[in-house]
Amino acid sequence: MTTESQVTAPTQAVAGFRLTIKAPLVLQSGAKLAPVTMAYQTYGQSNAEGTNCVLVCHALTGDHFVAGTHPITGRPGWWDALVGPGRVLDTNRFFVVCANVLGGCMGSTGPKEINPETGHPWGLKFPVITIRDMVQAQAALLDHLGVGQVFCVVGGSMGAMQVMEWAHRFPERVFAAAPIAGSYRHSAQNIAFHEVGRQAIMADLDWQHGDYLEKGTMPKRGLAVARMAAHITYLSETALHRKFGRKLQDRSALTYGFDADFQVESYLRHQGYTFVDRFDPNSYLYITRAMDYFDLAEENGGVLSNAFVGTPVRFCLISFSSDWLFPTSESRTIAHALNAVAANVSFVEIESDKGHDAFLLDEPEFRSTLQGFIDGAANIRGLPRRATP
Amino acid sequence: MTTESQVTAPTQAVAGFRLTIKAPLVLQSGAKLAPVTMAYQTYGQSNAEGTNCVLVCHALTGDHFVAGTHPITGRPGWWDALVGPGRVLDTNRFFVVCANVLGGCMGSTGPKEINPETGHPWGLKFPVITIRDMVQAQAALLDHLGVGQVFCVVGGSMGAMQVMEWAHRFPERVFAAAPIAGSYRHSAQNIAFHEVGRQAIMADLDWQHGDYLEKGTMPKRGLAVARMAAHITYLSETALHRKFGRKLQDRSALTYGFDADFQVESYLRHQGYTFVDRFDPNSYLYITRAMDYFDLAEENGGVLSNAFVGTPVRFCLISFSSDWLFPTSESRTIAHALNAVAANVSFVEIESDKGHDAFLLDEPEFRSTLQGFIDGAANIRGLPRRATP
Q1: A136, A150, B35, B343 — which has fewest CB within 10 A?
Q2: Closest chain B CA to residue A194
Q3: Which of A179, A151, A210 is nearest to A59 (CA)?
């Protein structure tokens, strides 16, 4: 099922490596997309056999800068706590790869890139892409990198959806899979939250029906509102309460106005208005749509376990107790489906009050759980053991 | 503490009764507001002693058309199932009163009404009002109606906040109080959701810094987005899943576009875009702000029970098990605080998977619980018993 592709040599750029795949990628919708550029980063070295690759899949607003310093924000990569020498995804042992998803806005082909047929940004002429399409593009990248079977595919949130799709679509190319804080399909409530975000972007007149790059405008206000709404869903009520409660922002009393009296308001506004500097509004539409469309059960006759009959993949499912965006019940459903086909699966719910965002934070129990799974799978795969500190 | 007021005779209009209070209302902020018009409805008749009044307090987007046919939407009033002859709030026995809240947009003084000092709509020059201010205005209305002690103050959501404020501020004027699906203070998460709604409205260029009525524009897109975000919080994940799941809207397959493929998207858009025909965007800002500011504990030295020391009021607290906007834990905190001052309180959590909106629906257990409380309190108060059917 991998895309046959002619590839050009990757070039090192400010935004990491780029690979351009000239052969058309046939999308789930039936549309063909060419060329496809994948922006990606690698950490550590591939072994001679090409068996030590860890493919990291990023979430909705993530990117391929997993570790080290992000070249645009100047802050640590989103999983810097987990990826590096001696860390859980140990770059002394593993060849860690992460690509900006298809439809993204950090260098991979997406709606803000130039449509070669018109010479103008794609905008809404960009085809709707799916989680499957993202994974197909990643597979083409791994072909180019000489990775046959991935040692472990791992990711949280939308990253977990990609992990599930990888295990379903390419079972022989995945030795181990760790979908974290994820699901096999997007729930009605999650679709609803995404729809609010999309409506907020589209409601901004500066969106210009998707042609803002051509028109020289930018729907920053709409995108900021979308981000604010989404951000609430990433946290738990408990975390919000502990972090902010009803504490006032730089004032000792209510001002009886519409400024950000409460710290939680100030925080949300900050989240919204910093986001617009690093994210493309149309990408937000496309990627949320890809998540909404994801439903591995529906694609397999309504029975999730059908997607994994006879799977050789070793699974480790991780959820967080206070995550209400991708609650534990979703991971439990996956665990049941995998058990129903006698798959090799472990499932751990991490006690945390930090909500969905916990997968991005340095939660010790999460880290040790993933560490245990990775080390155990590495032993079975015959990869080097972790150096004892 | 009641406002001394000169009143003009109420006039019957399309939008029910109106009372204009000429004496200034001193707001919690210290600002003075005059005149104050209260739009209200009454159902049933006051008894000779004026002891059979049930004051119904409405929620954020509710109004005073509790029962019968709403004159604008043509649909039943929001608590028509509970208010009427022989119903829980039996208009054969009780004199039911409901007023549009101060700051509202259905006839009571609010930001869309004319500022008498300028001859133009108030807009953002309208003073920020609080739940206490809403209650003070209601008290002035009851003064006018000849109601000394209210038999029962009842309401859900923001209505419950008013009930709590009534019991705190005017304990001698409240015989019984039924705060439903409410709280004694707005949580950080709820403030956050409100802030998203306000930001959505303010992000709409047609909002015109609040002067849209003057400028002849209307921030419908922003208000619709605010409503959509809020609407998700009114339902439970279970209810959304049962009602919509991932069902498609008038189509048999995904369209790979941004139309409303899913029923839940179509539903949300409908909720958003019908709301703008009946609600004023600035009112939405002011009323959400009033809810955010509400904190009966903070106002009483950080100890909620201080607000109810020696209270003679009989309380019935009702919550719904799947309500995540005003979860049961909030009502439980109130129950504990009332117990701590040996108040007369009963507390019932209704099993329902319908979320916060359950208080607006005809949930049999909810209805019978409220019925039991009302009937018991009426007996103690010496009001007529319910006619046996």
Answers
A1: B35
A2: B265
A3: A179
